[in-house]
Amino acid sequence: MKGTFEQAFKGVRPGTHSEQPAPWALGYQMREGDTGLWNNDLKARLLKRAVSEELSISEEEVEARLDSLQVLLPAIKAKLAGMRAVLVTRLVADIDLLPARLMRLKAIFPGAAAGVLAMREPGLVLGYDLDVLQATAEELRRMLPSLDIDRLVQENPAMLDVAGLKAAMAEAQRIMPHLDCERAMATDPQLIFGFQTGSQLIPYDPPRPVEQENDDDEYAAYYK
After folding, report:
1. From start to end residue, where is composition biased (Acidic residues) (predicted)?
2. pLDDT tens digit string along 85-115?
3. Closest residue by Cα to residue 124 from 198, 202, 178, 181
4. Does the chain have fewer CB atoms within 10 Å around its N or its C terminus?
């Protein structure tokens, strides 16, 4: 473990007057609650090293690509240190292609925040067939014509698994015969998604209900 720390903090030596002493040299002085002061920094260094080794590029190049990634996906900054190296590697491997993918995602779901959707479902900008995604969006709009599909997909990317969504709606109606599934999707989409058994996509953030806007109808945000 010390070897791993030393690699992450290369060039830092105990007992020197460097700006950031090696954390293992100070460990005996630190209370357990203090470890958070450097934990994210350590994670970030280890992450950059892992990405550098996987892509066979310098850590300086990794840092430049991560800077670009944070410009394109501002919300990623707070999550970056805790993200899996394999996912970050894929995101920065073809960083020059990401703007075009985000623009296409926005064109498919114009009412959604493309960056937020990409953060919750990174697979959509990591090689997912966007023509298939376009067809999926059109099918969802036909299935649920009174709902704001763009907004729903942004907050609940699991519904992109249309086959799973249809099965979930059928199961919900089997158990609750008088349930209006379309209305339920507007008022409490998690009620329907609770019957969904899986997804073809791999989300980074779990689906969660949209934060309601201030409106007389608290569910108006889901409607066109």
Report:
1. 212-224
2. 999 999 999 999 999 999 999 999 999 999 9
3. 202
4. N
**What are the angstrom distances between the C-alpha of 134 and each of 91, 100, 124, 147, 207?**
22, 15, 11, 17, 20
Helix (H), strand (E) counts: the chain: 12, 0
List, for residues 178-207, the tens digit of each pLDDT value: 999 999 888 888 888 888 765 444 444 443
Q: Rounded CA gap, 204 and 199, in Å?
A: 13
Q: Quick one: tokens of 188?
A: 């409490």
- Domain layout of the chain by residue ranges: 2-93, 97-222
Token pair in block for residue 83: 């993200």
Compute φ and ψ for 50, nearest 5 degrees: -65, -45
Give the predicted TM-score (pTM) of the model: 0.69
Separation between Cα atoms, residue 194 and residue 139, nearest integer Å: 21
| 48 HSE (CA, 13 A, CB side) | 19
At residue 39, the 3 state secondary structure works out as helix
Strand partners, 147: 223
* Spatial separation of the C-alpha atoms in residues 175 and 170, rounded to whole Å: 9
